[in-house]
Predict the 3D structure of the following.
Amino acid sequence: MAVYRRIEEDLRGRIASGEWMAGAMIPSRKDLAAEYGVDLGTIQRAVAGLLSDGALRADGGRGTFVAMSAGASRLPSVSKRSVTPKMIALIYDQSFNPTDIGAQSIPRSIYHKFLEEEANCRLLIFDTHGETPERIVELEGHALDAVESEGVSGVIVWHSGGESTLPQIRRIMDRGVPVIFMDRYPLGFDCDFVGVDDEFSGQEATDYLLGLGHRRIAFLAPLENITTIDQRLAGYKKALANVGILPSPELICRLPYTLSLNMVTLKQQMKAAAASLAALNDPPTAVFAVNDLLAHYYISAIKELGLSVPGEMSVIGFDDMDRFAPAPQFLTTMHQPFETMGERTAELLLKRLQTPGQRTFQHILLPTKLVVRQSCRSL
């Protein structure tokens, strides 16, 4: 493949990943040429392909912008075949909280897998980010309405709609449209799923703290009924039980927090949680936070109380978002393989498209990896 074609496809992937949102201005031709290490003419040819099919639009004198609609972003087919491409809906939260950067690599890896397999597919991306839990459910419902009406061939969903949207998903599946759940899935719902082994990972994170000598270990998570949290909590409890420790209810801290909360509210909740744990007669010496966002906010709250990390409190997170941060990496955490998750999801969907009517579902559980940094210490 010519260099400019490879760059063109990579630019499409960056749009697919949400790196450049609808209406966003992309870097200048000069900056792109420097980034890719090519001459200006090569970049001009790569961008021209995106301009010609409407993925980008040029605004004379101002720059070049992503020209996709705000509700659903259509990506050009990854195949040059003349036959009509299959429409694949990707339904997930495209919020650009800095801690979510890793998750943004998922659509890009899906797109690249389609390209690698020369699959004649086109991604249709629906953003379900909302300011309230009710709005998130509503947006997922709207996305599923569109799936039912637009003749979509397959669906990949980062499920956030709770039980409210399950009847729609079941109707789509009953019509023979394959649906793959990523990251989390509804308990008791027969489905294909690609994610990590959350229970084993939760156990491994807790085992690490136990191995450092900690016995009073708190578990910090949102008050949400999703499999990722439930299974990581189960792993935490299992690790404690294996060394003869009964999980203490006062150390299981569930916050009335969802991804829709603004950061000010979340910070206030975290201050209250940190103060509550610190005020216990026998306070914890370590905390397992169910994701890195909570871990970082907890560390900030602990420091405001005059306590040090890891001197007086060890903290372990989950996701490994520090690897995307420009600041020095500090948080010990469980690494989630987001890129692999996207690739395996695409592979499973392509398999389902090749064998329509398949009713034996598959759960693909990917391993996580403990990443030891500076936020934990031995007692």
